[in-house]
Amino acid sequence: MTPLAPELAPLLRTAAALAGVLLLLLALAWLLRRHDAGGSAAAASRRLAIVASRMVDARIRLVLVRRDAVEHLLAIGPTGITLVETVPAASSSPAPEEAAA
Q1: How many independent structural domains does the chain possess?
Q2: pTM value?
Q3: Residue range 84-95, pLDDT digits in tens
Q4: 28 and 61: one domain?
């Protein structure tokens, strides 16, 4: 078996070092993604939710979005997104009109 050409040795050493660094970066990214998966993503999903969505006509949709303790009514159409109303989030208890019925 013949040894590698002497001019290829630095190139192979550099390629091996680059592959090692890339493997370390991939391992670090995997660890960070795994560590973060249970924390901020779960907290963000509790803070932001789409409560309801209805089509007004063929091009406009109303979307009720809850963020923390505030609900935002958005009109989404071909011209963009418009904030229609912002109110405190409704509690889980029924409204007085519903309770009396």
Answers
A1: 2
A2: 0.48
A3: 999 998 765 444
A4: no
